[in-house]
Design goal:
The complex is a heterodimer of chains A (204) and B (306). Chain A has 204 residues and is of the alpha+beta class. Chain A is built from seven helices and seven strands. In chain A, strands 3-4-5-7-6 form a five-stranded mixed beta barrel. The radius of gyration of chain A is 26 Å and the shape is elongated. Chain B has 306 residues and is of the alpha/beta class. The radius of gyration of chain B is 24 Å and the shape is elongated. Classes of the chains: A alpha+beta (204), B alpha/beta (306). The interface between A and B is medium-sized, with 21 and 32 residues.
Chain lengths: 204, 306
């Protein structure tokens, strides 16, 4: 008889311990909590340093322009990234040239192969870098607000940390290599005076 | 006896063919549920969605939710019981509309959201939305440049329960907040309504008569802001920015009375939603949850293209 009570007591203790050591939550609740605590800065760091800087998708600007002129549809599909519906797409490009002017954060570059291009080191905002990289999918995030936070963190890194250090080393007359995002429209026929949102500017 | 058999066969044939011809004549029905018909932009969205659905061979009817989630809920209950086969929805509330969408989903009716996002990625079949954030980043850059990085400004928000309000505000502030000499002296909701925005700005101007710019979450409110500034004799001093690409604001940009707007494409969104419903009826099930539609900046430099 006593043994029976001992077994019941052991069972109750095990049940209490078991109940308190395991928690069940809805998967959607857990996923939401994960996204809310998501470290956008760390994620953007990884996108920039491990993704954008090492990307094989970056194309020489002159090759991109040639491709677009030859077969716009194919060039947009192969090198561009457009989320959803629209006439334009973002491209990650690289090129070289000589700085001929600096005004209000805009570096005017004489690019031997592509004429004059502009690098905007001040207004590094929006989704240009994120989308040109092609590394982040809309479906990776639950809402557009979270998806846009990736851009904000990525832009902060490039605008506040990377580019200020790099432009300290360059001045008018210097030859530089640069990479960054450009937006091209399918309606576009001229490829002069292109504006580049930089991801990197290096003294050659 | 033979006549009796023959008449039975004929009756059966009439019933069978009669029923099948009725089935053929019953087109699938598409409901267009729109947040409000009190704003020309949404009228265009709703009419365009219904027109595209009809062009694809379906019956279509527009339901007005009058910016009220409870009326939207009633609309959903009515159209579910009336046997509608798909819903093209412009939601009233990013959270409040989710339960309505789920009701339709439970009833096996696909819902395609247009223009306004709901805060769930497992309710609607697909959401076709303007890329409000990117559009307002462009407006933010234009705003900073026009105000030469300094001055006082007012923001008139849209409906506070609408995600578009915050996506627009977020895109704008992602730029403007990085320029510390730009001070926001007031941020108030104008409910996307022209008259409300006019009244809101009139009140703000009493306490802040020296503002340099106004950013409005839509063009109807930009027109209201213009009226308020005109009444105060400040319409040439204060720079106004809107969002939508409405005809009257495009004219005001041409006349250099409003600086810029973000051109949305409601017809593209409506067309895509109707097209998706058609594809759903034909068996497609793998729709992208969110489809952003590009927004174009319209200002004095490119107004000739619009």
């Amino acid at each position: 008889m006593k043994k029976k009570y001992v077994y019941i007591l052991v069972f109750v203790i095990i049940a209490i311990l078991g109940y308190n050591s395991v928690y069940f939550k809805k998967l959607s609740v857990v996923k939401n909590a994960q996204k809310e605590n998501f470290d956008f800065k760390a994620y953007a760091d990884s996108i920039y340093f491990k993704g954008i800087l090492k990307s094989k998708k970056t194309i020489a600007l002159t090759n991109l322009i040639t491709s677009v002129k030859t077969n716009q549809e194919a060039a947009f599909k192969k090198y561009g990234n457009r989320l959803g519906i629209g006439n334009s797409a973002y491209f990650m490009i690289q090129s070289t040239g000589k700085i001929i002017d600096i005004k209000d954060g805009v570096y005017t570059i004489a690019d031997k192969k592509n004429g004059i291009v502009y690098i905007d080191t001040k207004y590094i905002f929006g989704n240009a870098l994120r989308d040109a990289s092609g590394l982040v999918k809309l479906t990776d995030f639950k809402t557009n607000a979270q998806f846009n936070k990736v851009s904000e963190s990525l832009n902060d890194i490039v605008r506040n940390e990377v580019i200020p250090k790099e432009i300290k080393k360059v001045q008018i007359g210097d030859s530089v290599s640069f990479s960054g995002a450009i937006k091209l429209s399918k309606k576009q026929t001229l490829f002069t005076d292109l504006l580049i949102i930089p991801s990197q500017i290096k003294l050659q | 006896m033979k006549i009796k058999h023959l008449s039975l066969v004929l009756l059966t044939l009439v019933l069978v063919f009669g029923c099948s011809s009725k089935e053929k004549s019953e087109k699938p029905k598409i409901a267009v549920v729109v947040s409000t018909l009190n704003n020309p932009w949404f009228v265009m969205l709703a009419e365009s969605a219904a027109e595209n659905a009809k062009k694809l061979g379906y019956e279509a009817k527009i339901f007005d939710s009058q910016n009220n989630p409870a009326i939207e809920s009633d609309n959903f209950e009515n159209l579910i019981s009336s046997g509608y086969d798909a819903i093209l929805l412009n939601p009233t509330d990013s959270d409040g509309s989710i339960s309505n969408i789920l009701k339709a989903k439970t009833a096996g009716i696909p819902v395609f959201c247009m223009d306004r996002e709901v805060n769930a990625d497992d309710a609607a079949t697909s959401q076709i939305l303007s890329d409000n954030y990117s559009g307002c980043v462009s407006i933010g850059i234009e705003f900073v440049k026009e105000l030469k990085e300094k001055g006082k400004y007012v923001e008139i928000l849209g409906l506070v329960g609408d995600n578009n309000t915050w996506a627009r505000s977020g895109g704008f502030h992602s730029v403007v907040d990085k320029f510390p000499k730009l001070k926001m002296v007031a941020q108030q909701s104008g409910d996307f309504d022209r008259n409300k925005a006019m009244e809101v700005l009139e009140t703000i101007l009493q306490a802040n008569p020296d503002i340099d710019g106004v950013f409005c979450g839509n063009d109807a409110m930009a027109m209201g802001a213009f009226q308020a500034l005109q009444a105060a004799g400040k319409e040439t001093k204060v720079k106004i920015f809107g969002f939508d690409g409405a005809g009257d604001v495009i004219e005001k940009i041409r006349e250099k009375k409003i600086v810029a707007t973000g051109m949305q494409f409601p017809i593209v969104m409506a067309q895509t939603a109707a097209q998706y419903a058609d594809e759903y009826f034909k068996g497609r099930r793998d729709f992208p949850q969110r489809v952003p539609v590009e927004v174009e900046l319209v200002n004095a430099a490119n107004i000739k293209d619009y």
